[in-house]
Design goal:
With 88 residues, the protein is mainly α. The protein is built from 3 helices and no strands. The longest helix has 28 residues, at 45-72.
Length: 88
């Protein structure tokens, strides 16, 4: 048997995942012997990875700006290239 649980807009995926795990654990106590459940598709696993990717991206941007500053030795000229396109 397959049971699909979908997240409603505006809800917290991690809270939903924990609630489903808790509910399935409680329900599994009433299952007949030999019947087990499994959570095979968990989209919340990527949430932690995305947060780490954002952190790595921020570090990378900071390192690039630092290297450009060391090369140019001027904050103003360092910050001009990453600013949005300017047309005069």
């Amino acid at each position: 048997m397959v049971l699909a649980v979908f997240q409603m807009p505006g809800s917290n995926a991690l809270d939903l995942q924990q609630h489903v795990k808790d509910k399935m654990e409680a329900l599994s106590k009433r299952f007949p012997k030999g019947i087990e459940y499994g959570l095979h598709y968990d989209t919340t696993r990527s949430s932690g990875r995305e947060a780490r990717r954002d952190h790595h991206a921020q570090r990378s941007i900071g390192l690039v700006i630092l290297v450009v500053f060391i090369f140019l030795q001027n904050w103003r000229t360092t910050l001009i290239p990453p600013s949005p396109f300017r047309c005069r």
